[in-house]
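Box 4.2: Ligand-aware structure prediction
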Amino acid sequence: MTGTVFDAPTVIRCKRDGGRLSDAAIDWVIEAYTDGRVAPEQMSALLMAIFLRGMDRKEIARWTAAMLASGPRLDFTDLGLATVDKHSTGGVGDKITLPLVPVVTACGAAVPQAAGRGLGHTGGTLDKLESIAGFSAELSNHRVREQLRDIGAAIFAAGELAPADAKLYALRDVTGTVESLPLVASSVMSKKLAEGAAALVLDVKVGSGAFMNSEAESRDLAHTMVELGIAHGVPTRALLTDMEAPLGATVGNSLEVEESLEVLAGGGPPDVVELTVRLATEMLDLAGIDGRDPAETLRDGSAMDRFRRLVAAQGGDLAKPLPIGRHSETVTAARGGTMGDIDAMAVGLAAWRLGAGRSRPGARVQHGAGVRIHRRRGEPVVAGEALFTLYTDTPDRLPPAMAELDGAFSVVADPPPRRPLIIDRITR
Ligand code: URA
């Protein structure tokens, strides 16, 4: 497209028909949508066109830059801290941020983390943390600075940072336009570049519970985002990690907080611990911090201490019990053997149907809704014992959630082969 005067139908038709959007068209549509001149139904149509037609690298770079320019870019260099953050492309049971941020701060880095809410079948860090009584993610930029200085971390709603992403993210969540490489890459990188961390580690998911359909697409996403970060002056690297099965043994907001507290207390599922420690190692390396072993901070309580301080600073009260759905149903084993594959997507959808995610923009999530996994891949199963427990406050939600789990797992005779959690490391 050429020219300087734009209108939404023309931009939509250009992408719908497989054209490429000019820099000027991208700048216009992002700005006009952010300030309300492009209507949500018009942006929904454009997002669907992008979902179906894709974008080339140059369009993605410009779309990301326009989203970044829709708000301020924070800068903490004057604080003299080694700032670093991580972002995940979204998974099922992915509560890693909760133990990771305190681990990294206990090792001497500072983490300004702009986090998101649930997206599609995946959970969001903010929804999880808000299941702690009193916790608030609405922090002013001033408050973020104070927390970084005082306790080394802040986890906050992006708010005025990349406001284009805040609007697009909520719209994508309810219009079937989440699973798109250009839209995921620009969403992640616009807010991560805006939040002011000096370095960035990305956890790019691969498998049934990931937004990308294949490992090749996840690799492409990882390379695209690493290049975007570097182009904007932020050293960035990515790990490709397994998301065929849910991470850990819980999926759902308060259930995942409970499991994160176990990890911070030195226990918890081995995969959650492994990924936390590995991502922390990458973050500390990129931040130029050499010294403490991240695993040690889980054993000696220093990460737990940081987490408690972070939660308290943001109004949360860990002494109050975490909510749990009032109604539950259990799936039991029809036969004995070994737990085989557990489909992450199906478990994510079950948690979403139980009320852990949204189907309308701005809807309230149920903090106590979710799925507890009693037997994980490779664990022995005895006939008749509990395999999954589903929780919700709304009993009508149980049958459709149970239906999602139908055929989503298998109990097999022989232990399935081990699958690596960390698939690859992408530096450029
Ligand atoms: N995380 C984000 O911030 N955006 C996405 O689109 C996916 C994961």
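In the box above, the bound molecule is uracil. The first helix runs from residue 8 to 16.
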